[in-house]
Amino acid sequence: MVSVLTPVELQPAATPVEAPTAIHIDRVTVAYPVGRKGVKTILDGLDLEIAQGEFVVLLGQTGCGKSTLLRMILGQEHPAGGAVSVNKRVVTRVSSACGYVPQKYSLYPDRTVLGNLMMGPETSRYHILGRLSPGFRAFRREVRAEAMRQLERMGLHASDADKYPHQLSGGMQQRVAIAQSLMMKPTILLMDEAFSALDPSTRASLQRMMREIWLEKRPTVVFVTHNTAEALYLASRVIVLAKQGPQGQSGAKVALDRRLPGGMSLKRDGAEFLRLVEEIESCSGGLDQTEETDPEPVEIGAED
């Protein structure tokens, strides 16, 4: 039976964090020309620091720049002004330091599950001619063993390794996509609406799995969602981006930044949970609150 948790006082975002900075968003501005309408500003002088080991959930209405921010951290997109740094290096290109899990499963349809998992490590370590070297076979055996361990960790079976993506359910494909990212051993994991296309039970299962991965390894996670309950279940820190003026005239800025005690679960109808939902919605202008996709609370300490 789920315990009723005692409400705790959340600390403001300004609370010092001992861990070094993993991601630094330094006065970042993103703007696009929109024909005769002039320029549309998405982000306007955004400043953020994310410490190593934080599980940060980004919330905000569609179009406020959440996915854009993830792409800049990954190196797929660059700001018009300011800079994005990962592990104290300005991001100029896509780096293996970041793993990325999008909403739509990013698997190669012509490769088996095992082939999808092994492709990243193999291509990053060995080029075509390098695969003729004596060390490649031993390396490939190690990668295969690690891929099988990741499959097991994701709740899949050894027999799934030889299947192709189209033979898997949506939830299984997303588990493989997460494993695919983890195979590169990223220090930062970026997840963009990664669970939103899944059915409620599968979504809740993957939420629990992500909490277990984070509690065990403590990677830096930046997770985009529209679902406040999902955010409060997963996050060690919640950041809400909100548009500051008429669309196109002023980009989004941080409207709310709260750190939650690590590993905290909140009772769905508890006073603290409801207070946080109200605070987040008042800052963001309203978010999806699909109750059926919310996970069951877990007692503090059960997963530590």
Structural description of this entry:
The chain has 7 helices and 11 strands. It is α/β, with parallel strands linked by helices and 304 residues long. The chain has 2 domains: 1-97 and 188-304, P-loop containing nucleotide triphosphate hydrolases (Rossmann fold, 3-Layer(aba) Sandwich); 108-185, no CATH class.
Number of helices: 7
Q: Mean of the pLDDT scores? A: 82
The figure for the number of domains is: 2
CATH topology of the largest domain: Rossmann fold
User: What is the gyration radius calculated from CA atoms?
Assistant: 20 Å
Sheet with the most strands, sense and barrel status: 7 strands, mixed
Low-confidence stretches: 1-17, 289-304
CATH architecture of the largest domain: 3-Layer(aba) Sandwich
How large a portion of the residues is in β-strands, by DSSP E? 15-25%
- Amino-to-carboxy terminus distance: 18 Å
- The helix/strand series, from N terminus to C terminus, equals EEEEHEEEHHHEHEHEEH
The CATH first-level class of the largest domain comes to Alpha Beta
Shape: globular
Q: Tell me the name of the CATH homologous superfamily of the largest domain.
A: P-loop containing nucleotide triphosphate hydrolases
Total strands: the figure is: 11
Structural class: alpha/beta
Helix content: 25-40%
